[in-house]
UniProtKB/TrEMBL annotation:
A connexon is composed of a hexamer of connexins. It is a multi-pass membrane protein. One gap junction consists of a cluster of closely packed pairs of transmembrane channels, the connexons, through which materials of low MW diffuse from one cell to a neighboring cell. It comes from the Eukaryota. The keyword Transmembrane applies. Signal peptide: none annotated. It comes from Illadopsis cleaveri. This is Gap junction protein. The chain crosses the membrane at residues 20-39, 76-97, 128-150, 185-209. InterPro entries: Connexin, Connexin_CCC, Connexin_CS, Connexin_N, Connexin_N_sf. It is found in: Cell junction, Gap junction; Cell membrane.
């Protein structure tokens, strides 16, 4: 992605957010997105290559890896970050729609034009609902992914050794996960930051309702 475009999107989201929304954006960008891009991808880059089982049976290692890692942490986090950030872009699009409508009416009516949206970014009417629903959606997505991670990886942790007896493995074999401690630290870090984001979304939603 062009970083100039990305910076413009961030400034737009920051401009139309409340104080809690700006804190949420900082947590997502610094503690989730940057950690994901800079460190997490490298930690999981060798998860399949260094997943070793004490057998030479062809296909056994691949089957066991697929069983214990049905979906990669990295791909789940990528999907989660995409779904969480998209609603904020909808708010920007709604404000842009208001501004374009103002401009179009101003050109059509000329001197008889009466301003509909004195402040297009003010959270009133449809924009208020768009913003509130975006908060509910973001919190719901994070909660759903917390549940998915819990179901796939019990207690959000990975063991050092897993036992596998799926065909074509000849018997019960031991499989060893690469760097489980480091992966557990990153996983718990992402879980904690996700919980913080959920709390911030709930606080901001209550603030928005109370202010109205």
């Amino acid at each position: 992605m062009n970083w100039g475009v990305f910076e413009g999107l961030l400034s737009g989201v920051n401009k139309y957010s409340t104080a809690f929304g700006r804190i949420w954006l900082s947590v997502v960008f610094i503690f989730r997105l940057l950690v994901y891009l800079v460190a997490a991808e490298k930690v999981w880059s060798d998860d399949h290559k260094d997943f070793d089982c004490n057998t030479l049976q062809p296909g056994c290692t691949n089957v066991c890896f697929d069983h214990f890692f049905p979906v990669s942490h990295i791909r789940l986090w990528a999907l989660q970050l995409i779904l969480v950030t998209c609603p904020s872009l909808l708010v920007i699009m709604h404000v842009a729609y208001r501004e374009a409508k103002e401009q179009r009416l101003r050109e059509i009516k000329g001197d008889n034009y009466r301003c509909i949206y004195p402040n297009p970014g003010k959270k009133r009417g449809g924009l208020w609902w768009t913003y509130l629903l975006s908060l509910i959606f973001k919190a719901s997505v994070d909660v759903i992914f917390l549940y998915i991670f819990f179901r796939f990886y019990r207690n959000y942790t990975l063991p050092r050794v897993v036992k596998c007896e799926l065909p074509p493995c000849p018997n019960v074999v031991d499989c060893f996960i690469s760097r489980p401690t480091e992966k557990n630290i990153f996983t718990l870090f992402m879980v904690v930051t996700t919980c913080i984001c959920v709390v911030l979304n709930i606080i901001e939603a209550n603030y928005l309702i109370g202010k109205r």
